[in-house]
Amino acid sequence: MNTHRQHDGRDQVVKEYSRIAQVYDTKWSFYVEATTRETVSRFSLRPTDRILDVGCGTGALLHRLAATHPDAQLSGIEPVAEMLAIARRRLSPAIQLCAGWAEYLPFAAEQFDVVVSCNMFHYIRQPVAALHEMRRVLRPGGQLVITDWCADHWACRVCDRYLRLFQHAHFKTYRERECVRLLQEAGYVVVDIDRYRINWLWGMMTARVTKDAA
Ligand SMILES: C[S@@+](CC[C@H](N)C(=O)[O-])C[C@H]1O[C@@H](n2cnc3c(N)ncnc32)[C@H](O)[C@@H]1O
Questions:
Q1: pLDDT mean by block of 10 residues, the chain; 214 residues
Q2: What is the pTM of this model?
Q3: Does the Cβ of 115 fall within 6 Å of ligand 1?
Q4: Best mutation site among 8, 13, 38, 145 for ligand 1 pocket (most ligand atoms within 8 Å of CB)
C-alpha cells in the first residue's frame, strides 16, 4: 500500500466511490441534474471547443454537453474505475475518457479551451496543485469553471463538519473568499464567483476564471 496515497486521501476517494458507483446516479439524481444544469448555464462554448471535465464521475455533465454541443471535443478524467465504467457505457465512444487525478492531469499543456469540474473540489487535498494543473492544460484565454458546495451557506458548513468526521474521502468545503484566494495562488487574476441554492439545503458556488493570454 502506498502511504503517500493514504495520506493524500486518494485511497479513501477510491474506496468511497467504488462502493457507491452503482447507486450514484439514482441516489443523487436531483443533485446531479441541478448542479450540472447550473454549471453549464454559466459558461459559453463555441461549437468545436475542446472541453475537459475533471472528476467527471458517471459522465452526467459530459452527457448534457454532448446533447447541446454535438461538435465539441469532449474529454473526461476520473480516478475511480467503477464510476468511469458507467460514464463509458453512457457516453458516445467519440468522447475521450481516461483514468487519472486532478493533481496529475495526463495531458499536454494548452490542450483545452474550457476545463470544468463539478462537485469534486471538496475531495482535493492539494487544491492549489490541482488548480495549477488545470491552468497548465488550458490554452491562453481559456476558461476554468468550478462548481462546488459553498461554506458561506450554513447547511454546507454543517455537512462539512459532519463529513470531515465520518466520511474520510471528504476534505474541505470552502467559503467564497477562500476559493478566490486559492485561485489567485494558482495564478488566476480575475475571479468571478456566483453563489446560489439548488434547494433549501444545498448552497453552491460556481467560479469562473480565464487563463491570461501571457
Ligand atoms: C460527487 S462526485 C461528482 C461526479 C460528477 N462530476 C458529477 O457532478 O456527478 C465526485 C467525483 O470526484 C472524483 N474525485 C475525487 N477526488 C478527485 C481528484 N483528486 N481528482 C479527480 N477526481 C476526483 C470522485 O472519484 C467522484 O467521481
A1: 64 96 98 98 96 98 97 98 98 98 97 98 95 98 97 94 90 96 93 94 96 82
A2: 0.96
A3: no
A4: 13
